[in-house]
């Protein structure tokens, strides 16, 4: 069993990677939702296409409160187009904004981190989105790079915080090992056109910084974990994944891939997302 699975892996490494980076595999409506609990038994170890971030080290941010304490809202930092690029699998994505949730939306083997950051990337050529997530842990010292945001969090929707000089690279870890899966927006309209990449290395904030955010969302602003419905997470984190899918599952996946991508594209062209809606994602 193990040998034949590895054989398949060798035969079709690209086809295994494509579903997570191309438009997500189409499933029955509502069966490709986010967030999920990323667990060893639903994760497969795989070499993954490298993430090439090209982030501006001195850019302006426009930070807004999209409607606290509404649990579907957040604190969002809008980023100028072109300031944050991500190249993966030969495809270039543009960072539109980043925002925060408390507690974390994705669970890691059942563990809930205090917060999670989402870097939302758009694709100028389609309505697809890619979100890079990072868990946030509590540390003893304040995160100085994020302090200009967290020490002046806009308290209401009418407050705006403009930061003239921000280094986007401070949002990225040194180690880019990740968990990748096809999912959805975690706020309405929950569209299933989102490729998720959760970085394994967490970001640290102090208790004071986390408390400042929690004060705005006393009941939290995280969607509950959704059923994985047979999806697999691909990860290059050594020693995490334990899932060994039946070879038949992959054979079916590979055979159906062409049709599925076509179907997904057709579906997306029918209900494409307007740029204005993209910016409103919390
Ligand atoms: Zn989010």
Short description:
The chain has 282 residues and is an alpha+beta fold.
Keywords:
282 residues, alpha+beta, Carbonic Anhydrase II, twelve-stranded mixed β-sheet, 14 strands, globular, binds zinc ion
Instruction: Work out the helix count.
Output: 6
Total tally of structural domains: 1
CATH architecture: Roll
Structural class: alpha+beta
**What sequence of helices (H) and strands (E) makes up the elements?**
HHEEEEEEEEEEHEEEHEHH
- The overall strand count is 14
Structure write-up:
The chain is an alpha+beta fold and 282 residues long. The chain is built from 6 helices and 14 strands. Strands 2, 3, 4, 5, 6, 7, 9, 10, 11, 12, 13 and 14 form a 12-stranded mixed beta sheet that branches. Strands 1-8 form a two-stranded parallel ribbon. The longest helix is centred in the C-terminal third of the chain and has 24 residues, at 247-270. The structure holds zinc ion. Zinc ion (ZN) binds next to strand 7.
Set down the secondary structure blueprint.
Blueprint: H1 2-11, H2 13-21, E1 37-38, E2 43-45, E3 52-55, E4 59-65, E5 75-79, E6 84-88, E7 91-101, E8 107-108, E9 115-122, E10 129-139, H3 147-150, E11 160-166, E12 178-183, E13 194-206, H4 207-216, E14 233-235, H5 247-270, H6 275-279
Parallel strand pairs: 1-8, 2-14, 10-13
Antiparallel strand pairs: 3-6, 4-5, 4-11, 5-7, 6-7, 7-9, 9-10, 12-13, 12-14
Bound molecules: zinc ion (ZN).
Zinc ion (ZN) binds next to β7.
């Amino acid at each position: 069993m193990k040998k034949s699975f590895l054989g398949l892996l060798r035969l079709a490494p690209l086809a295994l990677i494509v579903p997570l980076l191309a438009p997500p595999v189409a499933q029955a409506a509502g069966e490709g939702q986010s967030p999920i609990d990323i667990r060893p038994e639903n994760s497969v170890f795989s070499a993954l296409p490298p993430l090439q971030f090209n982030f501006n080290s001195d850019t302006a941010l426009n930070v807004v409160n999209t409607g606290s304490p509404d649990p579907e809202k957040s604190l969002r930092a809008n980023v100028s187009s072109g300031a944050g690029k991500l190249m993966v699998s030969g495809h270039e994505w543009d960072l539109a904004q980043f925002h925060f949730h408390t507690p974390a939306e994705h669970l890691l083997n059942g563990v809930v981190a205090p917060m999670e950051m989402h870097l939302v990337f758009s694709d100028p050529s389609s309505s697809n989105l890619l979100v890079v997530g990072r868990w946030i842990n509590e540390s003893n010292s304040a995160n100085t790079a994020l302090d200009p945001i967290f020490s002046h969090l806009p308290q209401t929707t009418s407050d705006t915080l403009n930061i003239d000089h921000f280094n986007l690279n401070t949002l990225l870890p040194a180690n880019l090992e990740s968990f990748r899966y096809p999912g959805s927006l975690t706020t309405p309209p929950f569209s299933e056109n989102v490729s998720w990449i959760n970085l394994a290395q967490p970001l640290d904030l102090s208790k004071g910084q986390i408390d400042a955010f929690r004060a705005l969302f006393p009941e939290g602003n995280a969607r509950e974990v959704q059923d994985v419905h047979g999806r697999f997470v691909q990860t290059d984190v050594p020693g995490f994944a334990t899932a060994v899918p039946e070879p038949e599952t992959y054979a079916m996946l590979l055979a159906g891939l062409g049709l599925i991508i076509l179907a997904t594209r057709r579906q997306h062209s029918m209900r494409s997302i307007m740029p204005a809606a993209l910016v409103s994602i919390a």
